[in-house]
Amino acid sequence: MGLTLDPQALLMSTMAGGSGRSALLQQALQNTDMDPVMGQLVSQMLTRNEVAEAEEINEQIAERDERIHDLRDTLEDLGQTLKRVHAEVQALRAERAALQQDLGAAVEQVELLAGALGVCDECLGEAPDCPTCGGQGYPGSGFYRPDPVLYRRFVSPAAAARRPSAAIQGSAA
User: Fold this and answer.
1) What CA–CA distance (Å, rounded) separates 14 from 33?
2) What is the DSSP letter of 161?
3) pTM of the entire predicted model
4) Helices (H), strands (E): how many in the chain?
5) CA distances (Å), 136 to each of 107, 109, 111, 150, in order?
6) pLDDT digits (tens, 9 = 90+) for 115-152
7) Distance between CA 96 and CA 93 in Å, rounded?
């Protein structure tokens, strides 16, 4: 003996939609007491329902594929950005290394000139809060004595070159 289903209730519940439509239609098809016309109608509804479910699944797959495509594009953009940032970081590192080398050379020059003049190589005697000289290492202060070798190397030639020019300027006045 088969399961008896009210055809009107069956139609109403399957047309209302929901997640159990296919199962309800499958159950109705198993009813051996069903009118053949009703059986054909249920079979058509089941086919339509399966098509609708397949279309819904296809839409969900298409949406997911679109999200995956968007995520791949975003990931590719991020990869390009990462490459660009990496190149910029490398360029900045190279620039920093060059600046450090230039600074080291400048510090060496200042130390040589400070030694020649007998001044503090940190502040040239101009910073009262200097941890090395407390502002007392200015030229002629006696806080540092000029290095004679460096004095002859840097100061003497400059002073000698300055003398004729000073005499010319003095006579022009």
Assistant:
1) 19
2) H
3) 0.51
4) 5, 0
5) 20, 21, 17, 21
6) 999 999 999 999 999 999 999 999 989 899 999 999 99
7) 5
Query: Could you identify the residue written with the tokens 């289903």?
Result: 5
Place of tokens 């997911």: 64
Buried b (16+ CB within 10 A) or exposed e, 132-155: ebebebbeeeebbebbeebbeebe
d(CA 69, CA 23): 34
53: left (phi over 0), alpha (psi -120 to 50) or beta: alpha
In 21-48, which positions are buried (b, 16+ CB within 10 angstroms) versus exposed (e)?
beebbeebeebeebeeebeebbeebbee
HSE-up (13 A, CA, CB side) for residue 107: 7
